[in-house]
Amino acid sequence: MAAGVTIAHRMMLMGDPTAFGLPAGQAEAMRMVAEKVDAATEGSMDAVFETGRLMMRSAFGNLSADEIAHGMVAIGVAATKPAARRVKANARRLSQA
Fold it and tell me: Domain segments of the chain: what residues?
């Protein structure tokens, strides 16, 4: 839901050719790119830490198939959580504007 709200608001901005000439439009465009880079970096680091946690657990004990599956899910959640958090924040911010 939040992704759709964010995309809709930003598509209206991008659909107006004069918007990027205005300071507010330029600031939003820069913010879009910076947020994506920040979320990808943060998600990558979180996934690396979660992978390390799973590897340490597997190195020091026998993990069941369920524990391995839960560990893999935790890696995916860690990787996507920063982006999801930013999407929700953007939806709130853009809906108020």
Answer: 22-96
Structure tokens belonging to residue 71: 């560990």
Rounded to whole angstroms, how far apart are CA atoms 82 and 85?
Answer: 5
In the chain, the N- to C-terminal Cα span, in Å, equals: 18
Contact 10, 3 (CB under 8 A): no
Tens digits of residue pLDDT in 36-56: 999 999 999 999 999 999 999
Kindly state the average pLDDT of the residues 64-93. Answer: 95
Q: What is the DSSP letter of 93?
A: H
What is the length of the chain? 97
